[in-house]
Structures are given as structure tokens and as C-alpha cells.
Design brief:
The complex is a heterodimer of chains A (560) and B (202). With 560 residues, chain A is α+β, with helices and mostly antiparallel strands. Helices cover 40% and strands 14% of the residues of chain A. Chain B contains 8 helices and 8 strands. The radius of gyration of chain B is 23 Å and the shape is elongated. The chains are: A alpha+beta (560), B alpha/beta (202).
């Protein structure tokens, strides 16, 4: 594969936002080379992993400290494992006690740091951290898998692989916090560190450490239970265990509240696809890599278990799409712009799930083109915050007609188009979605009804002198200020807006969660309702002692 | 101690709860955060400011003029500075100064005017009571007071400052000559080390 000229780089256009930014499409994205779990491992594969401190009791409770270091800088995870009654174990973000809690520390902690954090980290939202701490999380055991693994190991045998492959983890996290929450370090304190340039890198680091902790904890507990007979968990089995995660609506507002960041994520993916489609000569080896990962993925889909009719429908659609694709796909065809031909067939013959699955897969043989795009997935949002008040009203009208045409047609007087409202729960300080005609509280609606409010802006701006300035307009239209800001952002960042009505009766919020989770690199989407889902992270990823040998193909490792 | 993220988020929500639109509340979160990062009492000032908002003692400008006078109420520093920022290119193009009689909590003017300084490409000075502040293109500020800062003032003067060098031409020239001593004299032999050809016509 070789791309020589600018002309070749732009052999095809970027896909338009009107095609990509629909929720049904965004909710069909899959992990790829750009996913944050994978870019974390690529970035840190040559750092040294070490267990700094290991103090668990017979039952596996106590403290553990791990570190990653490059000789100059270090990051540490401090783990606190506690006894938890079964009746207290809840995956909801609103829980107040967990099996284990974790904090990512900047450097190697001193004893007094551990003592200070011991009385705060297990409390999570109710505790306090400082600028020395970078991310905070907690997790609960998947009791049936944890107990099965400990019992098996303590009896001197490896656990049942089939059983484990369907669950895929020993622990589920219920939240991972960073960027200044609960006293953690503000983003600006670490923003200039080269190794942290990708989004959510610290959060991904934390989860990777947690996975190691869960494996160490089962080994330790099994050994304590039966010192003479216990064996350690086989690396091949441990590698296929990831970390589960329960994700609720808290994630959904994030992608609406960070429009320029959302644009960067989508743009990186679209640029990657553009680059791959523009390759004139694709080698047989590159086609074989694609085919190998395709077949491996189809096999791994057998481990995707869900009770959700919605997800079952999507998974079945994907399986059917991939079967059709397999019938079509022929690596011996020697044609110029092979990937572009492939993409054109896919876009005309497959559904959203299938199209985006193949898009992710097409990036795999071309790491040299795709991987550098990971460093373009962050942005200084404040740089684009200020409203340019000298812009004319007519320009705003034009921008809306160009980028928001779809919403001008929506009638927001109709009940079904405004039936929901987003708000923060007073009790739990978590985002929620409720029916505005059945529940109280819509006066405290969060600014997430973007489509409705941009339509209001459009209607209003059509009534003023086209030559008047935004500064004049905003003196009397303060309620529209937040959407004016977004419209100006969208002019520069066309992938910044979801092109769907996020308060409509028909909204499927888990599509918003799925979008973000696919960028994390999650697999095994298992919706438990329209409002929350379970996923798995790092399943198949190299263990810490294997990191330096990683070739970034772990996401396609056989899980069965 | 709270992180700046927590300060920004809490103040944004408090502003919304106090009747501001989400768009202005977003600005307020950034105003308070910015003051706190600069070591100025943003949160405390905002807290007391909200008391005045509650009592409805503040006036929102409907148009920013060179001289702004309201005999009945104090001007609101948030609404005033947001309006100045939005229209700063035009306002400072036509005038070098904007004065307000009667301004509440003038410290809250600083962050928006600092952003305006960056947009218009000129320093901006703010003076009230005996306090002088110079805003440098949203990069930094110079202030002659550690506080306390007044809850209200009878007059605020805002000036755009034409940037004059703080040094003489001769001082710069002498330093430039000194800097030349880090260069190496060229010779014919060394010219072959240049990246380009010897002429621009080859």
C-alpha cells in the first residue's frame, strides 16, 4: 500500500454529517484502531509495569499498589478491597458501597498518601481527592464468575472456559471519574503530557490496572483458601478476561455537552476511512489481515450474550450482513482502489451495523495511516467557546439552513417531538430522562434539547434585520445564547451535532451510550433497558507482562 | 479543596438556579473559574453578587455606550461584560473607553474583558476606586491590589490601550547587535551547507 499524492489522499470525500450523525448510525459504531483502550496500550506498551505493594488478607481484602513507569514518570493505581454483603452489592451508579475502589495516582504514593486515600476512596462521591489523584473508580465482583474461578483454582484446576467466555470478566466497574471531579486533578494540569494526548487515557489506564488487580485477587484468594493445592489462573484464560462495565444515562449528556470533542472523534474515524478508501493498490497481505480479523470477529460474536430484544435484533442484523458480505468478499480480485470498491458495495448492500463494522475492520491492515489520527482526537474546547458577536443575523440563518436543515422540518408543537426532558436527579446528581407530560421538574430541564432550541433560534433570527449583529440579537435573546454558541461551533466542526431529536418520544438513549462506548473500545453490548447497558473492556488484551509484545491485534483474539 | 472543574460546574448551575439562561450560566462558570485560577476571589465575589441578583438591585444594559449611566440601579457586571465581549470589535473600534457609573462587584468584569482584549488585539485597562488592572490578551493580568475588592463602585473606567513599547529603540537595537554575536560569519565553503541553491534561478 502506498499513498503518494494529496490527490490520492482525497480520492474520495469525507462522508457527510447528514449520513453519519443520525443516532441509529452512531449507535451502530464498533471498536476500531482509534478506540481508546487500544491507543492506550499502543502508547504505554514500553512502560514498565510493577506491583509496588501487595497487602491482601486471606479473604482477598486489603490494599494493592501497581505502577507504570518509563524511568522518568510514573502512574500508580491504589486498590482498596473490602468485604461487601451480597445485599449491598448494586451495579447502579447510585450505590454507596462496592467490593473494591480504586484511585489513579500521579507518581508513586507515599504511605501517608495511601492512608489519606484509604479513608476517602472507598466513599467515592462522598470522599475527597486532591490534585495528586487523576482518576477514581469502583467495581463489584461478578460473584458467580469470581467464586467459580477462586473455587476452581483452589481445587487445583482451571475454570470452565465456556462459562467464562460468555461473561468475560471478574469485576464490573460502575463509574470511572476523571478531570477534576471530586477534587481530582483538573485536566489542564496534565494536558501537556505527551503520553496523555489521547482522550480518556487516564481512565483507560485505570481500567487496565483494575483488570490486573482482579486476576491477582482471584489467584491470591485461591492460594489462601487452599495453599497446598491451589494453582494460578492460566495466562490464556486470564487474557480473555476483561473488565465489565455498567453504564447508565450519565454518559449520554457528555457527547452533547462536548460538541467540538465529538467532532474530533468522528472526524478521526472519517479521515481514517477516507485514507483507506484512497489507497490505490492494496496488497494481498493487507487483504488477508482484513479477512482473518473478519472471520475471527464472526467467531467471537458467539460470545455476545444479551436478553435485550433491541440488541438481539441488531446482532442478528449484523450477523446476516456479515454473512452476505462474506459471500461478496473476494480477496483475489485485483482492482485499483480495492477498499473503495468494497466500501461502495457495503454502503449499498448492508445495514448500519454492518457498514460500520466493516469500516472499523478496513482500518486494521493500515495502522501506519490510521494510528497517528489518535493524537487528533482531543481538543481545547475553550478555544472555541467565545461567541463572535460581530457575525450577522443572516449568516446564522445560513449556517442553520446548511447544517441543521433536518430540524427545520420538525414540528416542536407536537407532543411526540417534545415528550422527554433531561435533568439532574437531586438525590443522586445523575442525569435522567423523563416524560415532560407525566413527571414534574421540566422547569429544570438541562440544555440538551438542542434540536428544539435551534429551531427556536432559527424562527427568531428569521424575524430580525438580516444585517443586525449577533451582539445586538443576544442582548434581548439570552435564552438562545447556548444554541448560538453551538451553531457557530457546528459551522467549523460539522460532526459536532447529533442529527436527531434527543427529546422525542422515539429517542433510544442507549444509542448515545453505544457511540461513546465504541470509541472506548467496548464490546459485547448488552442493554438492560433503553436507559443502561453492560459492556466488556480489555477482553483479549495483553496482560501487563505481555504489553511490550502487543501488535495491536488483541481485539480480534479468539475468545472461545 | 475543590478543583477548578468543580468550581466552574457548581457556579454554572448556581447561576442557572438564580434565573440566568444556560448560555449566560456557562459564561459565569468560566468567569469564576478564570478568576480563581488567577488567584482572585471569584467564588466569594460571585456568592455575594447572587445576593444582589436575588434582591433585583442590578440593571442590565440594553445597549453599551461610551458613558453608561443609570440613576436608579447598579449595573450588573456579568450582563455588562458579556455585552461588551459580544460587541467588542465594534465598541473598541469606535471608542477607546467605556465608562459605567454605579457598577456592582466590578471584579467580575475581568475575565470577559480579558477575552475581549484577545479579540481586539489590544490591552485593556479597568480602573475603579484606587484599583488598576491591565488585561493582556487573555494571557495574563497586572493588578495593583490584593483586595479586598468592593461590592460596588461609583465609577468603572474601561480603556483599550494602544500598545506602545516599554523600551527605547536604542535599547532594542543594542540587544539585537548583541544577539548577532551568536551567529557565524558565512564563507564560500559554508554556503554549500545552505539548503537552497546559490541562486533562485537554478
Amino acid at each position: 500500500m502506498k499513498i503518494n499524492t494529496q490527490k490520492e489522499k482525497e480520492f474520495v470525500s469525507l462522508r457527510p454529517a447528514s449520513e453519519i450523525m443520525k443516532l441509529s448510525r452512531l449507535g451502530s459504531f464498533h471498536q476500531s484502531k482509534l478506540s481508546f483502550l487500544r491507543s492506550f496500550i499502543r502508547e504505554f506498551k514500553n512502560w514498565n509495569f510493577q506491583t509496588e505493594y501487595f497487602n491482601l488478607n486471606q479473604e482477598g481484602f486489603g490494599e494493592v499498589v501497581y505502577s507504570l513507569s518509563d524511568g522518568n514518570k510514573s502512574y500508580s493505581l491504589i486498590c482498596f478491597a473490602n468485604h461487601l454483603n451480597d445485599s449491598e452489592r448494586s451495579d447502579r451508579v447510585i450505590a454507596t458501597k462496592w467490593d473494591s475502589s480504586f484511585v489513579l495516582f500521579d507518581g508513586i504514593p507515599e504511605k501517608e498518601d495511601i492512608e489519606r486515600l484509604k479513608s476517602n476512596v472507598p466513599l467515592q462521591e462522598k470522599g475527597r481527592t486532591t490534585y495528586k489523584e487523576l482518576a477514581l473508580s469502583r467495581a463489584n465482583k461478578s460473584v458467580r464468575t469470581f467464586d467459580h474461578v477462586v473455587q476452581s483454582l483452589s481445587e487445583g484446576k482451571q475454570p470452565d472456559k465456556d462459562f467464562l467466555s460468555k461473561v468475560g470478566y471478574l469485576y464490573r466497574t460502575t463509574a470511572v471519574y476523571g478531570s477534576g471531579k471530586f477534587g481530582l486533578a483538573d485536566r489542564f494540569r496534565i494536558a501537556d503530557r505527551e503520553e496523555l494526548q489521547g482522550p480518556f487515557r487516564l481512565e483507560m489506564m485505570l481500567v487496565y490496572f483494575v483488570r490486573k488487580f482482579t486476576i491477582d485477587q482471584v489467584n491470591h484468594t485461591a492460594k489462601e483458601r487452599n495453599p497446598s493445592k491451589a494453582i494460578p489462573l492460566d495466562d490464556d484464560i486470564a487474557r480473555n478476561l476483561g473488565i465489565g462495565n455498567s453504564t447508565g444515562l450519565g454518559m449520554a449528556p457528555f457527547i452533547v455537552n462536548h460538541p467540538t470533542l465529538l467532532h474530533q472523534w468522528i472526524m478521526a474515524r472519517e479521515k481514517a476511512l477516507q485514507l483507506v478508501r484512497s489507497i490505490q493498490h492494496v496488497t494481498m497481505d493487507e487483504k488477508k489481515i482484513f479477512q482473518k480479523f473478519l472471520l475471527q470477529s464472526i467467531n467471537n460474536m458467539k460470545t455476545w450474550v444479551t436478553d435485550s430484544d433491541y440488541q438481539i435484533g441488531k446482532n442478528n442484523q449484523l450477523k446476516e450482513d456479515l454473512k452476505n458480505f462474506n459471500d461478496y468478499f473476494n480477496i483475489s480480485i485485483d482492482k485499483e482502489y480495492f477498499w473503495n470498491e468494497t466500501y461502495l458495495w457495503v454502503s449499498q448492500n448492508l445495514h448500519d451495523e454492518g457498514i460500520e463494522f466493516i469500516v472499523s475492520l478496513m482500518m486494521e491492515p493500515h495502522g501506519d495511516l490510521v494510528e497517528p489520527l489518535s493524537s487528533e482526537m482531543s481538543i481545547d474546547e475553550d478555544e472555541h467557546f467565545t461567541i463572535s458577536g460581530s457575525r450577522k443575523a443572516s449568516e446564522i440563518k445560513d449556517i442553520i439552513e446548511k447544517h441543521y436543515l433536518w430540524l427545520i422540518q420538525v414540528d416542536f408543537e407536537k407532543k411526540e417531538n417534545i415528550s422527554n426532558f433531561w435533568y439532574y436527579s437531586k438525590n443522586k446528581q445523575e442525569p435522567r430522562l423523563s416524560n415532560r407530560f407525566e413527571e414534574d421538574g421540566s422547569e429544570n430541564e438541562l440544555p440538551l434539547a438542542i434540536a428544539r432550541d435551534i429551531k427556536k433560534l432559527y424562527q427568531k433570527i428569521c424575524t430580525v434585520d438580516p444585517e443586525s449583529t449577533l451582539a445586538e440579537f443576544l442582548l434581548s435573546q439570552k435564552n438562545l445564547r447556548y444554541v448560538v454558541r453551538r451553531v457557530l461551533m457546528c459551522e467549523k466542526f460539522p460532526y459536532s451535532e447529533i442529527q436527531d431529536n434527543t427529546i422525542a418520544e422515539t429517542i433510544i438513549p442507549i444509542d448515545m451510550l453505544r457511540l461513546k462506548l465504541s470509541y472506548f473500545g467496548a464490546i459485547k453490548f448488552d442493554p438492560r433497558s433503553n436507559l443502561w447497558l453492560r459492556i466488556t473492556m480489555y477482553q483479549g488484551a495483553p496482560l501487563p507482562h505481555e504489553m511490550k509484545f502487543s501488535d495491536d491485534s488483541w481485539a480480534y483474539r479468539s475468545l472461545i | 479543596m475543590e478543583s477548578f472543574y468543580e468550581i466552574e460546574t457548581t457556579c454554572k448551575r448556581a447561576a442557572k438556579a438564580s434565573g440566568f439562561s444556560w448560555g449566560i450560566a456557562e459564561e459565569i462558570g468560566k468567569i469564576v473559574r478564570s478568576l480563581e485560577i488567577m488567584g482572585l476571589p471569584g467564588l466569594k465575589t460571585f456568592y455575594h453578587y447572587l445576593g444582589d441578583v436575588k434582591d433585583e438591585t442590578l440593571s442590565k444594559p440594553t445597549k453599551i455606550l461610551s458613558k453608561n449611566t443609570n440613576n436608579n440601579k447598579m449595573y450588573c457586571p456579568i450582563e455588562s461584560s458579556v455585552a461588551i465581549l459580544d460587541d467588542c470589535k465594534s465598541l473598541f473600534k469606535n471608542n477607546d473607553f467605556i465608562d459605567f457609573d454605579q457598577m456592582a462587584h466590578p471584579l467580575l468584569l475581568i475575565p470577559m474583558l480579558n477575552r475581549a482584549s484577545n479579540i481586539i488585539g489590544k490591552k485593556i485597562s479597568i480602573s475603579f476606586d484606587n484599583i488598576e488592572i491591565i488585561l493582556n490578551y487573555n494571557e495574563s493580568l497586572v493588578i495593583n491590589s490584593k483586595g479586598p475588592f468592593p461590592n460596588q463602585t461609583n465609577k468603572v473606567s474601561i480603556r483599550s490601550i494602544s500598545t506602545e513599547p516599554t523600551y527605547s529603540k536604542k535599547e532594542y537595537e543594542n540587544l539585537y547587535q548583541l544577539s548577532l554575536e551568536t551567529f557565524v560569519e558565512e564563507s564560500e565553503g559554508k554556503l554549500s551547507g545552505a539548503g537552497a541553491g546559490l541562486t533562485d534561478n537554478d
